[in-house]
Amino acid sequence: MLTREMASVPNNLEPFWMPFTANRDFKANPRLIAKAEGMYYTTTDGQRILDATAGLWCVNVGHGRERVVEAIRAQAAELDFAPTFQFAHPKAFELASRLADLFPGDLDHAFFTNSGSESVDTALKIALAYQRAIGQGTRTRLIGRERGYHGVGFGGISVGGIVKNRMFFGSLLTGVDHLPHTLNLEHNAFSRGQPAWGAHLAEDLERIIALHDASTIAAVIVEPVAGSIGVYPPPQGYLERLREITEKHGILLIFDEVITAFGRLGKASASEYFGVQPDLVTTAKGLTSGTVPMGAVMARKHIHDAIVGGATSSPQTIELFHGYTYSAHPLACAAALATLEVYKEEGLFERAAELAPFWEEALHSLAGEPHVIDVRNIGLMGAVEMSSRPGKVGERAYEAMVKAWEKGVMIRITGDTIAMSPPLIVQKHEIETAVETVRSVVRELA
């Protein structure tokens, strides 16, 4: 039940410059959230909103989970902060060990950050440091992918390939190139899971290598499933071919799993789901189920050892000049450990895998609805792409987002694509509610 204090609306919305938001329209018609529990938000005026997006792809165990809340509360009372520059606290090591056990192969070392953006920039720096440590200091070039999203740091937007995220901020990092994206509606529209067409697009990496020479390239970074651009599952065989090419040329392969790690595909990671072993993995979001900002980069043993164990100077010398004030923050570690326990005890990864076929059928029932030109899905990720109005890209989806909110469902949009990624605790009837709400909304759009 909402209290009088919770229901109150701020009398001045202007001071908060909102991120990735149409500020003028929002502040004229605000969508304010007062509380959350389970699968639902509650607005300041008492409306219940089904969270079909897990917040921002992150609230995987659902909102207000008591085990996680209590872990954060207890940790704040016991140890509110401890530096991890030359000092540490036990939970940082406990969490790193848990993650090493969770990720496949020899991804045995965790470097903690505070967000996906920080994880990406950290992974890029580790890749450069590794190449230097093994005597390959000429390898400084980084390869991303068109339409890729790797956060908002200068490293992330440089290797990223979303135009609006890049065009306002100058020349960005030098020495960056991009693979083509994998979506082609002529060949793979309405695919279920991984499309059959498109594996050959990985071969473009050979062209880029021939252009720049392998001796100049440090790493390739891709999202196993491109998420923020609107859910692009990888074509069958595509990731495997990227791994083959990078290994052949001594180039590191980085998987950006900020979205796909921690159950989104029904496994602990997309690396496990696809059976492809990257050299570095970036994570965040589901690590703490969004409760406390945290990220982690998982590094294979040989990468860690080349930088740390291979140092030729004295043991008192810092091996990697990188880190954040809040790396492995005690509250974040406590939240992450509790979140991992919820995943395990409730079998949420397995539950997501079991629900995926139902999710797929529900989403693809939207094929043939007005304006819908594609439906994509994998795991508990899904996208419904609509045609754009002439000269007004994104306007139709924006209206869909507002209408869905008014009908009691939160969805995400990118361009004219509706994206959904519910918490892993979602019930079948809630999937049906989300999909039927989208159906009613697209039928109302001009």
TrEMBL record:
It comes from the Bacteria. GO terms for biological process: biotin biosynthetic process. Its cofactor is pyridoxal 5'-phosphate. Keywords: Aminotransferase, Pyridoxal phosphate, Transferase. GO terms for molecular function: adenosylmethionine-8-amino-7-oxononanoate transaminase activity; pyridoxal phosphate binding. Signal peptide: none annotated. InterPro entries: Aminotrans_3 (IPR005814), Aminotrans_3_PPA_site (IPR049704), PyrdxlP-dep_Trfase (IPR015424), PyrdxlP-dep_Trfase_major (IPR015421), PyrdxlP-dep_Trfase_small (IPR015422). Pfam families: Aminotran_3. Belongs to the class-III pyridoxal-phosphate-dependent aminotransferase family. This is Aspartate aminotransferase family protein. It comes from Marinimicrococcus flavescens.
